[in-house]
Amino acid sequence: MKASSTLFAIFIVVISTAGAQVVPSIEGPYYRLPISGTLHYDLRYTQTADFYEGYTEQIGTASGELAYANTSAVHPLALVYSGGDSWAISGPPNETGVFQHMLVSDGLVRRDWSLKLMDEASYTPQAPVTGFSGIPGVGTLPGQPGFPTQPILTQNLRSVGNTVGPDFTHTIGHATSLVFGGRYSILRFPDGIGLATDSVQANGQINRRLDALNSIFGQYVYGYFSYPAYPQLTMDTQSALFGYLRTWTRQFKTSVSAGPEWIQSSNNPLVPPSTSLTANASATYALRTSTTATVSYLRGVTGGAGEATEVAIHNNDVTGAITQLFGRKWTITATGSYMRTQGFALQLDQTVATNAELGGVSATRRFGRYFTAFANYTAIQQSSNLGLGANVVNGLSQVVGFGVAYSPRDINLKK
Asked: CA-to-CA distance for 414 and 408, rounded, in angstroms?
């Protein structure tokens, strides 16, 4: 608790300093800020009740969130952070402790090419579920509804994740572009319960704009997965996709792609070679600033889901979210996910299949310029055809949360 309190205190000092910089820029004619852009931050206290397997746990959480984006068209920089500490008020101390999630991206833009570097790191006491923080009931940054990043949902299982990589885009003429990217990711479990995974991904894509409303693209993706606990086991995946993008109106856009995916491993009896279909589809709707909605579908292979028995899995995921603003004071957000994972690794001559459904709704009310109050509800239903670890959600879990936040409106910083 001492370490987590220190981290949160440092976060408050940083935010206070950032907010204090706004005043001199207005009143001090000789003072200039070293940065310019838009800053959003808030400080929250949340109390949640978790109903699972016949017990009720009440949790208190102190957290903070920060989002910053500069105004440079040549060197775009963006930072998103959410972190805090939670503790048990009553009931067993599950899903408590420090949580952190940060995403940083930096770029360089030229006339016909651009380079973007990203780094994302997280530390959570459970599988990330909803919101940018990943913690149900805590709240979320505007525009960051968040979806599960581990397809098998766990509780009381600390995880550390980090993903880094570049993206390079080169424009050829007015209608063609080339995109190259790569990612290196690690997933670790400090308690030694989950399956640690390393992965490397590389991709190349060519885009062709047919007209103002229609575009097509072709993509190749290579993935390599390894497991520190099983150095003798590695897995390779290769996929080739053809896709189509359509802009139906200024508010509504769709994208769909599909193609074959080839899987190979260094241990054929455990993970036999195979060929399957990989697919991605998405639809987005945005009506100015009052309504935003997204829905997406993903089918493909990943190296694992964190659960120790799930080495190599086939994902079928559907996710959706909608946010509606009512005037300047009310914001309603709803999210939902369905995730089906099918293990490639054979156990007792059959594979593990897990089904998870997740849904949540939240309401936020602004009071004046600086304060908000919010309430939310999250439900998780997960089942499997074979036994999984004790930390895996098995059945129905429900979380009800209420909280208050110091949440000033966005701050425009100027040099």
From this structure: 18
Residues with Cβ < 8 Å from 234, sequence gap 6 or more?
Answer: 224, 225, 226, 227, 265, 266
Q: Tell me which residue has tokens 């074979």.
A: 386
Residues 220, 200 contacting (CB under 8 angstroms): no
pLDDT-based confidence at residue 322 (cuts at 50, 70, 90): very high
pLDDT tens-place string over residues 38-49: 998 889 999 999
Q: CA nearest 135: which of 90, 93, 86?
A: 86
Tokens 């455990």 label which residue? Answer: 270
Q: Return the structure tokens found at 282.
A: 């998405």
Beta bridge partners of 403: 46, 374
DSSP character at residue 347: B
Q: Give the confidence band of 402 by pLDDT, cuts at 50, 70, 90.
A: very high
Tell me what percent of the residues of the chain surpass a pLDDT of 70: 80
Q: 188 is written with which tokens?
A: 């670790």
- Which sign does the torsion angle of CA 401, 404, 407, 408 carry? positive
**Helix (H) / strand (E) containing 17:** helix 2-20
What are the pLDDT digits (tens) for 165-197? Answer: 999 999 999 999 999 999 999 988 888 777 888
Question: What's the rounded Cα separation, in Å, for the pair 139 and 7?
Answer: 19
Helix ranges, 319-395 (H): none
Give the separation between CA 136 and CA 61, rounded to whole angstroms.
11
* Helix boundaries (H) for 119-161: none
In the numeric block, which tokens belong to residue 92? 């067993």
What pLDDT band is residue 233 in, cutting at 50, 70 and 90?
Answer: confident
What DSSP element (H or E) covers 104?
strand 97-109
- Residue 171 in tokens: 């424009």
Amino acid at the residue 193: I
Average pLDDT over residues 58-82: 91
**pLDDT at residue 211 tops 50:** yes
Domains parsed from the chain with CATH numbers:
46-58+101-413 (2.40.160)
- What does the radius of gyration of the chain's CA atoms come to, in whole angstroms? 22
Residue 57 corresponds to which tokens in the numbers above? 């746990």
In sequence order, what DSSP letters do the residues of 204-256 get, joined into one string?
Answer: EEEEEE-SSSEEEEEEEEEEEEE-TT-TT-EEEEEEEEEEEEEE-SSSEEEEE
Name the DSSP letter for residue 367: E
